[in-house]
Design a protein that fits this description.
With 95 residues, the protein is α+β, with helices and mostly antiparallel strands. The protein has one domain (2-93). 18% of the residues lie in helices and 38% in strands. It contains 3 helices and 7 strands. Strands 1, 2, 3, 4, 5, 6 and 7 form a 7-stranded mixed beta sheet that branches. It is globular.
């Protein structure tokens, strides 16, 4: 899901083997545990880094659900990343 005017994207999160909720997650089972933006980074499939104002992982181990939010995406540009996404095209079609 995306929010074009705010440059925000949210997605289901499937952690890698080294993921540790207590170290990496901002929210665990609904409780805020801290901002982890300074220790997280997002790599694109080609190995380049996506830059944003914040990265937030919400981890709900009791539900076996995880989500990652990217807030204030600026590099590559939000437009470049999501120009073909249905939420993006639907939003800008209204203009």
């Amino acid at each position: 899901m995306t929010d074009p005017p705010m440059c925000v994207a949210m997605a289901k999160f499937s952690p890698a083997r080294d993921y540790d909720a207590n170290r990496h997650a901002n929210v665990i089972d609904g409780d805020y545990v801290g901002d982890r933006t300074d220790i997280l980074r997002l790599e694109m499939a080609d190995g380049s880094t996506m830059k944003s104002e914040a990265i937030s992982i919400q981890d709900y181990p009791t539900l076996d659900e995880r989500q990652v939010d990217l807030i204030g995406i600026f590099e590559p540009s939000f437009d470049e990343l999501f120009k073909e996404h249905p939420s993006y095209t639907a939003y800008w079609a209204k203009e």
